[in-house]
Amino acid sequence: MEQQRCVEKHSSKPKKQILINAHTKEVRIAILEDGQLVEFYVERKGNRGIVGNIYKGRVIKIVPAVQAAFVDIGISKKAFLYVRDAVTVEFEEEDDPFDETTQTQEIELPSIEEVLSEGQEVLIQVSKEPIGTKGPRITTNITIPGHYLVLLPTVNKIGISRRITDESERGRLKEIAEKIKPEEYGIIVRTAAEGATEEDLKKDLDYILKVWKGLLEKSENRPPPSLLYQDLEIVPKTLRDLLTEDVSEVIIDSKAEFERAVNFAKAFIPKLAGRIKYYNKDIPLFQRFEVEKAIEKALSRKVYLPNGGYIVIDETEALVSIDVNSGKFRKTKTLEETALKINLAAAREIARQLRLRDIGGIIVIDFIDMKEEENKQLLLKTLEEELSRDRAKTKIVNMSDLGLVEMTRKRVKKSLGKSLTMTCPYCEGKGRVKSVETVAFEIEREILSLLKINHSSSRVIKVYANPLVAEKLKGDEKDIIDRIEEIYKKEIKVIPVDYYHIEKFTVVRG
Questions:
Q1: Are 365 and 320 within 8 A, CB to CB?
Q2: Residue ranges of the chain with pLDDT lower than 50?
Q3: DSSP code at position 52
Q4: Is the peptide bond between 130 and the residue preceding it cis, with omega within 30 degrees of 0?
Q5: Which end of the chain is more exposed for a tag (fewer CB within 10 A), N or C?
């Protein structure tokens, strides 16, 4: 039986920055480590995710064959509840069940019929977004996250994040947790709590307890299906979950979002509020830090390596395949040495691309063949080390006899590619192009960039675009176009061009 490895977390801490772009009805968040884009998130108005939301639902069907139930939570697709997610989770004291890398204990599960029955009312939390034809995945093991702590209403234990490695600090935080923990609940001390005071933790606990008790009151007064708690919007959620001591700065290019972010941080993370900065330069924020280029590369199948090799990433319904190629790599003394150098460079880039593209599920990597066992082990070790920066749970299986590395990465929502692109109308699904909405947002940013940098006397801006994109700009995005016209005292003419590819557009002064 092939050996499985659970990836341990990295101890090194690169310089981390959070960039927030929020000029249109789209908010984009980029996480940079040592100047390199490693994570990217998008939230569009009217299209917020539901992971973390808590509902009062009703069981509508029991499916013994797969030991699961369908639950109506008030959205179009019925939610899916496995028996494992319907029983109380047990975890080791040093584990953090809110951390996706945590391994819960193996327990003997009861049958789904012993746990749930049709018509039963249940309090659940969404753990995975609906993807494709599948409805959201849910759990009865509810968590209420704060900045320093996570409240566990169904588990009466204390946990300390495994990312806190200093034993004396773990002991200090455990003492505080034991002192402030409510008798009937469990709490998890998050990574952000490293160095925090008892007062910090107590304030955080008071807030999440208030959220939980308010949620219970709503549950008593509302019939199923009902939304009881909606997780924070993307900016405050990012600050709550990602603004820690190792983040050097948070840069926001919207004055309104900047002010909201500062107010949120002052209320919940006061000691880090000073790291939030407002960006008001002519060069757009994401261009200044070359994030736009990195996003374009993240939507491409082919990714070039610094040494001349390249990788090809293909997403399918069943799995993700990644092929490593030598390309223009300058050959070394032996084929084995050449293969090792290319593979090591590929392992580093693959780990970054999986995290950036937020690819989940089964992943198969076809590295260049190597003969020596020592080199194969070095490659696996390098891949593990690079993946250790990833917050998502990842499992690696040793190389198969065919030289393939199989791994899994926890999937919570649609990947970056599926979020920003749509099925191509030109090739009928054999490839993908940017969605009309994505191109419309790009045009809006291009207009803003042109107006900020080029202060000519021309009063007209002409936009040439594919008819579908032009229709979007004149319809759903008309309020944004009108707002830009009002602020800059310019007229924006949107002109459809039939022969333009859906991604092509031109923005010029009249």
A1: no
A2: 1-11, 92-104
A3: T
A4: no
A5: N
Query: φ, ψ for residue 129 (rounded to 5)?
Result: -65, 155
Q: Which token pair is 181?
A: 């923990």
Running DSSP on this structure, what letter comes out for residue 230?
-
User: For residues 116 and 125, what is the distance between their CA atoms, to the nearest angstrom?
Assistant: 16
What is the DSSP secondary-structure string of 60-89?
EEEEGGGTEEEEE-SSSSPEEEEGGGGS--
Secondary structure (H, E, C), 122-159: EEEEEEECCECCECCEEECCCCEECCCEEEECCCCCEE
pTM, full prediction: 0.82
**431-452 exposure pattern, b = at least 16 Cβ within 10 A, e = fewer:** ebbbbbbbbbbbbbbbbbebbe
CB-CB contact of 104 with 35 (8 Å): no
Neighbours of 155 (CB within 10 A): 20
**3-class secondary-structure state, position 111:** coil
Between CA 188 and CA 93 the distance in angstroms is 9
C-beta separation of 57 from 225 below 8 A: yes
For residue 116, what pLDDT is reported? 95
Instruction: Give the Cα separation of 170 and 285 in Å (integer).
Output: 38
* H or E element in which residue 363 lies: strand 361-366
- Say how far apart CA 469 and CA 24 lie, in whole Å: 16
For the chain, report the end-to-end CA distance as a whole number of angstroms: 68
Nearest to 387 by CA among 9, 5, 38, 3: 9
What pLDDT sits at residue 143?
Answer: 94
What is the rounded CA–CA span in Å between residue 188 and residue 151?
Answer: 7
69-128 tens-digit pLDDT: 999 999 989 999 999 999 876 654 444 444 444 444 556 889 999 999 999 999 999 999
- Confidence at residue 382, expressed as pLDDT on a 0 to 100 scale: 95
Burial class (CB in 10 A: 0-12, 13-18, 19+), 101: buried
Put the strands of the sheet holding 26-33 in their side by side order.
36-44, 26-33, 16-21, 247-252, 276-278
d(C-alpha 126, C-alpha 49), whole Å = 10
Residue with tokens 């049709």: 118
**What is the chain's length?**
510
Angstrom CA distances, 24 to 66, 131, 136, 288, 418, stand at 44, 26, 28, 18, 21
Type of residue at 335: L
pLDDT of residue 103: 45
Reported for 298-304, long-range contacts at CB under 8 A and 24+ positions apart, including other chains, are 298/37, 298/40, 298/353, 298/356, 298/357, 298/416, 298/417, 299/416, 299/417, 299/420, 299/421, 299/434, 303/349, 303/353
pLDDT at 306: 86
* Tokens linked to 260: 């909201």
Q: How many CA atoms lie within 13 A of 427 on its CB side?
A: 9
Rounded to whole angstroms, the Cα distance separating 377 from 94 reads 29
Q: What residues form DSSP beta bridges with 186?
A: 152
- 332, two tokens: 């070394």
C-alpha distances out from residue 330 to 254, 326, 342, 345, Å:
46, 9, 10, 14
